[in-house]
Each structure stands twice: as structure tokens, then as C-alpha cells.
Amino acid sequence: MGGRIPDLTSEEMSERQKALYAAMASSFRGPVQGPFPLWVRNPEVGAQALEMVKALRDKTSVARPLRELAILVAARRFRAQYPWHIHAPLAKAAGLPEDVIEAIRTGRRPNFAAPDQETAYTALTELLDKGRIGDATYEAAEKALGREALLDLVGVASFYTGLALFLGAFEVPAPDNAQPLPA
Amino acid sequence: MARIPDLKPEEMSERQKQLAAEIGGPRGGVVRGPFAIWLRNPDLVDKANQLGNLLREGTTVPRRLSELAILVTARHWTAQYEWFAHENQAIEQGIAKEIVEAIRHRKTPPFAKKDEQLVYAICSELYENKKVSDATYNAAVAGLGQQMVIELMTIASFYAMIAMFLVTFEAPVPGGKLPLPE
């Protein structure tokens, strides 16, 4: 897969690790890549990290386009190629407009047609750029999205920020070393 | 002033009450900080708490080093509550007070122990540059071992998540204190 940490071969894996690897493959119906092969190395932690990712996917009150928007904004901010590669198509499938995705990819502020997307984008970029959200932006976001959805939106953005840093530490590439995000 | 008020017991579902007891148990019966906020989504707080527990107890990273990584993380995001919750733990685990003070004031700490210096270097470089140079990465792997570096970065990224969550919702420190200067 490339990156600083080689994937474990199946001969190197314990039974516990093999079972986790299989659970990861079935959770995303695809190859085990990105952070997941690294998380297999401590299978107890890896199993719980997988549970966290699934809960962020399946158990939040934030609308899917907003959830994908949060992931893309975090991936772009930290230039994390792998999550962008995975989530740009999911964002499109969830209904996030292509011109919005393209603007984020190239580092421009998108022209939003959907006010909730604009509100979410404004709050998240303020958080990532300034390290906090000012009162006016926060209040606008809570009013527009509702408290529960805002909590989950920030939960998703925060998790994917941590993930982007983790991937950066080990130089984990996107499949085929794709570089969808320019410098 | 907290942006998200704590749930009152009468506002909690049975599941939230159960989770509050589970999470508060090892913390003197009090649910504060990120967990108090996150309790509003029981599925997420449950998973985050379990992951946090494993990162505390189920890795090869000594607590002394994980607490150091957490302080570097809290300082980077100026996450007041995270710093408050971990400052004393770091000192109890053996991080020297001068080191804690240096990190608090964004100064280079006077490390006497090589492993602490390696942890500080890889975490601060990651947060500053969003990546880690070959020299810093290779020194960390040579000094700590590959497995510990993977686990250390998992811990750092988890607490980075918690830090962002805390600063967004301005989670208050008990007594209204602000242990970190801007």
C-alpha cells in the first residue's frame, strides 16, 4: 500500500488480527486500506476504532451531505489524500453538488445553494483556520442546524481531523498513490 | 459560559443514565468535559469512551508518555479542559513540572529523558507541519519502536479530536479557570 508502515501479511497476523481484518473488509465492502491496516496492529484498539468509524457513519443526527462536507473540509485542510479519495464520491452520491466539492478540492470558498451547507462550511472552516468558533458563527450554526446535528457535525469533523493527522504521520497514500488534492 | 449545558438527570434517557454512571465511575462519579457534551449522542459517547479507555490501558505506550502527548495536544489547540484534566496526571506519571510549564508557555521543554523528547518532537512536528520529517520519524521508531509509534499517534489523534470538540463547545473548566494562556 505504500506509506511508512508495510501491511501485515496474513502469515504475520494472529487469529484475532485476521478476524478484525475480515470485519473491516465487510464493514466497508471493499479493500482494507487507509488507516485500517495500521489499526490491525493493535487489534483491541483497532476493533474499537472501527466501531467509532461505524458509529460516525451510522449513528449521527447530521444529514449525509453535511457529514460528507465535514469530512471533505477536514481532509482538504490537512491535505489527506486517502479520506478525500474515499469520500469525494460518497459526498457526490449523498447529494453534495459537484461544484461545491470541486471548490473545496482546489481551496476556494464554494458558492452554496443550500443554506445549511453554507452554515456548516462557515463554522467548520472557522474552527480549522482559527482554532475556535466565534459567538456569531456558533449561534448561527446552532440555530440553523439544531444543537444535536451541530454536535454530530463537529464530532465528525474532529474525528476526521485526528484521522488526517494520523495518516499524515505515516504518509499513508490514497490507492495507486492518487493525489486528488493539490498543494 | 458553556455553550452546551449539562443534561440534568431528569432529561436523560435510561441509556444516557447508564452511560453517565459507566463513564463517571472511574472519574469520581462526575461526567464532565467532552463526555458531558457527547452524552447527547449515546452511541457516539459510548464508542468514544471505550476507545479512550483502551488507549489509556491497552497499548504499549507508558502512561507517562501518553500523558505527555496529551498535554502537547491540549496546548496546540488551547483546549483548556483537556489540559486541566491531564496536567496532574502527567505529573503523577513522572513528567517533570518544568516540562509541563514549558509546554504551557509554548517554550521548548528541558527534557532529561530521551523517550520524552522523541514523543514531544513527533507530536509537535505533526501538529505544526501536518506531517513528520524522516529524521524525526526515524528517530521515534529507533527509540520507541514501530508499534509504540503507531499507538502513540493513535492516542495523539484521539486527543486531537477531543480537543477540537472541546474548543468548539467551549467546555468549561471547573471553577472557571483557564490554565493555558493564549
Q: Low-confidence spans of chain A: pLDDT under 50, at least 5 residues? A: none
Using the CA coordinates, give the radius of gyration of chain B: 17 Å
CATH architecture of the largest domain in chain A: Up-down Bundle
According to DSSP, the number of beta strands of chain A is: 0
- Ranges of chain B with pLDDT <50 over ≥5 residues? none
Feature tags:
heterodimer; A: 183 residues; mainly alpha; AhpD-like; 2 domains; B: 182 residues; globular
Polypeptide structure, described:
The complex is a heterodimer of chains A (183) and B (182). Chain A has 183 residues and is an all-alpha fold. Chain A is built from nine helices and no strands. Chain A folds into two domains: 10-58, no CATH class; 64-177, AhpD-like (Up-down Bundle). The longest helix of chain A has 23 residues, at 147-169. The mean pLDDT of chain A is 96. Chain B is mainly alpha-helical and 182 residues long. Chain B has two domains: 9-57, no CATH class; 63-160, AhpD-like, CATH 1.20.1290. The model of chain B has no long low-confidence stretch (mean pLDDT 96). The interface between A and B is large, with 44 and 47 residues.
How do you describe this structure in short?
Chain A is mostly helical.
